[in-house]
Structures are given as C-alpha cells and as structure tokens.
Amino acid sequence: QLVQSGGGSAQPGGSLTLSCAVTGSITINYGMGWYRQIPEKQRELVASIYDGYREYVDSVKGRFAISIDNAKDIVYLQMNSLKPEDTGVYYCGTQGVWGQGTQVTVSS
C-alpha cells in the first residue's frame, strides 16, 4: 500500500513536502506519480518519476520536484513557490494503487 504524509497549509510563496511510503507488494521500480484533485475536476497528474526520468505538468515546472529515496522506499514531492492554484488533495499512485490523499491549502 501507499501511505502518505506531509501537506497542510502554506502561504503563497511558501513550501511544503509530501511523502509517500511504499509498503507491501508494491514496488517503486515501476515509477510513481503525484496527482492533484480539486472539486468537480478530474484527478490531474502533476509529477511523475520512472527509471530516473521526471516529468511535470507545465503549471508546476520549476517549482515542484519529485524524488525517490530507494533505501527507504519513499517518494517525495517537494513543492516550492506555492500558489493558491496549487490547492487541492494530492495523491500518490502507482500500479493501480493510491495513497489516502492529503490536503494542501495555499492561501494568505
């Protein structure tokens, strides 16, 4: 399973870090994605990592960074220069499995 931690509230321009611990039969080797969901919209892939290759949605490029700690089987999403439009529920997901979701709220 995928167990998320981190997130919370931040002011515009601030930073937050999300973590996704991979446990059980799930393997990080197939890559991982971080997704954002806001009310009445589809879940959007914002960052992904596979075999060292990273990809980001345009709206977060240069501000967010996805990384993997292979020793701990944890995937991180470092979010910098946060904007109000980054607000949403963030999920990590891989191989059809989802984390529990964590709320990120950016407001002044």
Note the topology:
Blueprint: E1 2-6, E2 8-10, E3 16-22, E4 32-37, E5 44-50, E6 53-56, E7 64-69, E8 74-79, E9 88-94, E10 97-98, E11 102-106
Parallel strand pairs: 2-11
Antiparallel strand pairs: 1-3, 3-8, 4-5, 4-9, 5-6, 7-8, 9-10, 9-11
Tell me about this structure.
The protein is mostly beta strands. Helix content is 0%, strand content 54%. The chain has no helices and eleven strands. The strands form two sheets. Strands 2, 4, 5, 6, 9, 10 and 11 form a seven-stranded mixed sheet that branches. A four-stranded antiparallel sheet has the order 1-3-8-7, with no helix packed on it. A hairpin with a 4-residue loop joins strand 7 and strand 8. The chain is globular and about 40 Å long. The mean pLDDT is 94.
